[in-house]
Design a protein that fits this description.
0% strand, 94 residues, 73% helix, mainly alpha, elongated
Length: 94
């Protein structure tokens, strides 16, 4: 999709922004889903794995989401840079 967008006239900066935005949205959705599963099944499953008397606050979950999103976006920066250096035809062929 990115190569096609570039072939029809999208700028590389715009495509790089959308690639990073895509990683952000996927990481956010995955972390919210994981936290929801943890919150729902905490009493029945996860309480056995954690140390006793540890209660998670919403602040803890927000910190976890921020770390997941930050690490995901930072890990995808080399891919975005290598993508920006290739021509649209090379990306489309790959």
């Amino acid at each position: 999709m990115d190569a096609i967008s570039e072939l029809v006239g999208a700028r590389r900066g715009t495509i790089a922004f959308f690639l990073l935005l895509e990683r952000f949205v996927i990481a956010f959705a995955a972390s919210v889903l994981a936290i929801a599963i943890h919150k729902i099944f905490y009493d029945s499953i996860f309480e056995r794995f954690n140390l006793t008397s540890i209660d998670y606050a919403w602040r803890d979950y927000c910190i976890i989401i921020a770390i997941i999103i930050l690490s995901s976006v930072l890990a995808s920066i080399p891919f975005v840079i290598s993508y920006a250096r290739r021509s649209a035809l090379k990306v489309l062929r790959k």
